[in-house]
Design a protein that fits this description.
By secondary structure, the chain is of the alpha/beta class. Helix content is 27%, strand content 27%. The strands form 3 sheets. Strands 3, 4, 5, 6, 7, 14 and 15 form a 7-stranded mixed β-sheet that branches. It has a 6-stranded parallel β-sheet with strand order 10-9-8-11-12-13. Helix 4 (129-142) packs across helix 5.
Length: 321
Amino acid sequence: MKAAVYQTYGPPEVLKIMDIDPPAFGEEHTDRVLIEVHHASVNPFDYLHRSGYLPVRLSNGFLTPKEQVLGIDVAGRVIRIGSGVTRFQVGDLIYGNCLGSHAETVRARENTISVMPKNLTTHQAAAVPTAALTALQALRDGAQITSGQKILINGASGGIGHFAVQISKFYEGEVTAVCSTANLSWVKELGADHVIDYTREDFTKNGMQYDVIFDAVAKKTYFNCKPSLTPTGVYITENPLRPAGQAFQVLFSAVIRDRHLKTHLTQPGYEDLDFLRKLIETEKLKPVIEKIYPLNAIAAAHRHVQNGHTQGKIVIAVQPG
């Protein structure tokens, strides 16, 4: 099968399209599902692994990568199921999370995928899993948002951010979206009540305060944002190591038991994918896709995401169905 492979850490050019063996699928894979990949997407996870980000090297090999096929979002068709699988049949269209989706075939755990929303194509569905799960879990579980709260989303036009705007509105928050000039209109169309153009205004210096600040792009540290929180407000980030200075602030806040700072690690799971499917099918949530790249342009897709200014998601066409 064809796959985007990186055998050394480095720039996007280390990614090569190669013929490799498909994933093994034997009697021992009782809770696994084999998937024909139609579309996948590119996330910060992918370029951080490819570039050899130090925390990644500690688990994926210090000098050379152990896992050499990236991609954690998948949308495609089930072509084989393990003996213990009960939620899927061969032929089902699915979406969800698994490592190695930048390849024609991938093996996934049954509990990390779900039936694809019936009103989406596979290229639309591939844009959803990681980014939407991150937004949902950070806001619902981490920040524990409630109706009527003032919620600020920093990076509201990005992959995570555009889902965060919609999810905040689903939970009846008053949403302020921070993005660039070019994205103000369409972010407001997603449901944002207020928009801030970060090229003209720094939200940390305008005197406004929020119940929740979700930094979806890891551009503002907790100490930057703390004056913009209400007395009971919460700042939440997916990346405790970025931007510069954040790691110290996270550690210091933990030592003094500062409950205003929350960090979040996304947990794949079919229950939340099922929930997202219901939101999508009832038109309360929709993915925005800036561009679809063919698999053989995977390096360009990585560069696009790594520049940090995407409008929604970047999708990879592996075997378009």
